[in-house]
Amino acid sequence: MIRDNSFKKEFEFEKTLSEYKRVKIICYLLGFGMIISIANNYMDFLDLQRFFKYKSSGYAIILWVFFFLCYELIFLALLRRYIRNRISINEHLKLAHTLIEIVFPGILMFMLTVIEERAVYLDAPYFLTYFLLIAISSLQLNFRISFFLGVFAALQYSALTYYIYNYIIPSQDPGSHMPIASYYVRAVMMLFTGAAAGMIASEINNRVQNSFSQLMEKQKIISLFGQQVSREIVDELILRKDDLDIKRVSATIMFLDIRNFSSYAETKDPAEIIQFQNNIFDPLIEIISKHKGLVNQFLGDGFMASFGIPIATNDHSQNAFNAGLEIIHKIKVLAEVGVIPITRVGIGIHSGEVITGNIGNEIRKQYSIAGTTVITAARLEQLNKEYRTQFLVTREFLESISTNGQAVESLGEISIKGFEKPMEVMCVKV
Fold it and tell me: Which architecture characterizes domain 226-428 according to CATH?
């Protein structure tokens, strides 16, 4: 079931609108029936006057339609008031109203039976009103209402059958009528129709709620990753419905920093600084997305990106390395064409196990990545300042990828802050 209160409130209001449409349909049908009944009572174009024993039967039908229509119009006005004030109708009120509606066909058949003192009204088309009311009750999207409607209709029709066969038919020839069981079977069919309408209503209700759940899941992914990933990754996340809770995964982390950004920012006005960041970050984000990466966090003059998260891939290390090379090349091209000034960056990449998942509360959540792999990549990026390089990785990382002929040089075993054992750091010659 859906837990989102705002959706529940909105969905209940939509069901009120649906109930308004249902009652409106009944009003239109009754209005049409009123016109036909009055016209036929005076012109007899349906040839019913010869069928009635008494003229009062025709007036009884008109009176029945009139009161039924008045009742529906009153309830329609109530629903219009609810809708105007955006109030959802209570389920108990809907159930009570629907059960009152289903009494009307029984009243008509009983009234005609008493007036005419004949049993033929069990077979008259009026009994089909039961099935019509039961069928359109599915618009209420409530199994209980449709089912109870079927039960109530079946009980009414059975009671009318019992009355007619015990108090009307005995004074006539019982052999000229259908067996009583055939009418009880018809009552059972009303019961089944109510159950079927209820199941249809329940299925529609469940499908709407499931659709909303999928929409909420999609919105959850979009709100978590925003514009940081390509549309393809978002679509794949939605398709896979990956669990975004805390878990351990194998991934590659990249840290990138723009060198001497603080010195640049000191001499520029805010508009120029923002323009520079947009000019450099926009194409870099596209490169990250192109290589199935995710920009997790902007760090003022740089960013942290991950590969293999949240969609697991076997080639996340290679994707990160290729993205790093393309980023260096792109920055050179942007500088050559004058989009940005000559700019150097520092890139650190490392692969390994990381811990991912949502942290925060229901008001504010953030997709977080942590672990020694993240720390290692960050330390490598910082080492670029010390060694005046732009692209550093570890020997361990390098052995897991293909350099595609790119020149790489070892800087030797280096003690990295926070780690006991030194690591062999490799410089990608760019």
Answer: 2-Layer Sandwich (3.30)
